[in-house]
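Course assignment 3, question 2. Fill in each field.
Student: A.L.
Task: Predict the tertiary structure for the chain below.
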Amino acid sequence: MKLCRFDDDRLGVVIDDVVHDVSDIQAQIRAAARYDMKGDAVIAALPAWRKRIEDAAAKASATPLADVKLISPVARPSKTMGAPANYKKHIEEMRSRTDIKRDDLSSNLTKAAPVRAPRGIGEAGIFLKANSSIVGPSEGIPLRFLDRINEHEIELVAIIGKPGSDIPSARAKEHIAGYTLGIDVTCRGGEDRSFRKSIDGYSVVGPWLVTADEIPDPGDVTITLTNNGELRQTAHTGDLIYDVGRLIEFASSFYTLNPGDILYTGTPQGVAAVKPGDVLRGQCDLIGELEIEVRAHRAREP
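Answer field:
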């Protein structure tokens, strides 16, 4: 099953090229959930409510995908996690680069701090991205600091469905609700990684959630990213240093994972700069296509 959120916080089931509106089910689930629950009520309820969601979709009105505005498929994750340096070739490409070793961080600084070469994920650990940085395909990527390097990083994203802590990798699949695509946008510089990756709009998620039963082997998934039609990145999850199970084991050894938590699994080689006007397309045969436009950040009115 493919679940999306669209327009003004509506819930839909995607079948072929149409969206079947099941927002009434979403309202029922949320009404029954505790306000103080940790995580996303709809994701937590999927096992118990799936049959009712499917039955409702069969009777619901259908709207072409082209006529809806897709937003993040998860409304309320308790946290958004990222796996740094999880493909060997990406580590190699970052170590060979000279353009990001001494970024100019501010016009007030005459000498920028050097950027340390990537460490392995076991040493670097999981990092967090602010939930406020999450956007869906229709919202665009509002670039800030156009005088600095901002880059795309395509990734497979796992969505946690069942809460747990200290989860062994062999049982990790029991805790996954589904998968989606993600673009971890990165502003290069000397500040803390999580700070630079948590800019508004720098955590793209979508186009929808594909339930875990449709991807029985997350270690055999191919993802590509193009920028303005030019192929930039190709990832095969069989090349992950920490596979999805190991990532969940690692993350849950530090954090309790909650329903709806978002886990970016790492990006392959081929990261490159983006600029306003670029159109990024992530594609995976098992998930679908994520298309999003890059634009310049516009300051909000007071």
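Instructor remarks: The chain is about 20% helix and 30% strand. The two ends are 42 Å apart (CA to CA).
Grade: pending
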